[in-house]
Design goal:
By secondary structure, this protein is an alpha+beta fold. It has helices at 13-25, 35-74; strands spanning 80-84, 87-90, 97-103, 107-115, 121-130, 133-139, 152-161, 167-168, 171-184, 187-192, 195-198, 202-206. Strands 1, 3, 6, 9, 10, 11 and 12 form a 7-stranded antiparallel beta sheet that branches. Strands 2, 4, 5, 7 and 8 form a 5-stranded antiparallel beta sheet that branches.
Amino acid sequence: MTQATGQSSSLGKEDFLKLLVAQLAHQDPLQPMENTEFVAQLATFSNLEQMMSVNTNLGLLQISQAAMANSQVAGLIGKEVEAKGDMLQLLKQGSTVSVNFDLPVAAQEVTIKIKDMKGNVIRTLQVGSRMAGLNSAAWDGKDSMGNLMPAGTYSVDISAKDKNGNAVNASSHFKGIVSGVTFINGIPLLEVGSTTVQVGDVVAVRQPASGS
């Protein structure tokens, strides 16, 4: 039974050259290798060397591009980003937060539920009709009893209906300050409050307001 050696079975240019030299050393002197066959093997060796050089250069280019992209993402630290998602950052107790959402069509009735991190609904906002596109509603940072909620991360659940009572698929956005960047398997994730955001979900980048 053949045992695995744990080594790569692919041949490099040095292995190919050794095989070619061994073939020349052990050929029959009465029937030497044809010139055309020898030239063909040399051409194969040359092509192999060129392909390995191209692969090396492509690998270096990929590393360089990844380094540039990571540097650009790191430049978002300290910036305010608006991203797709249901998170809501209450920066300080008593502050007002904008709940941003996008509507594919106009809605006659929009309801926003604010939830704590345990999933409990702490406030329901009836914001009435809204036009198609990006919309905003204000949450004063209070629960349904008028109590000030502590600073932290909350979530929103947005439901909407058109004038005929049909459901409208609303997507929520949230804002927050980027405090850091985490790289997982080479993929950058922005640290915003207690959550992480994929760069592809970011729809806007702004300078943070004074005092944020």
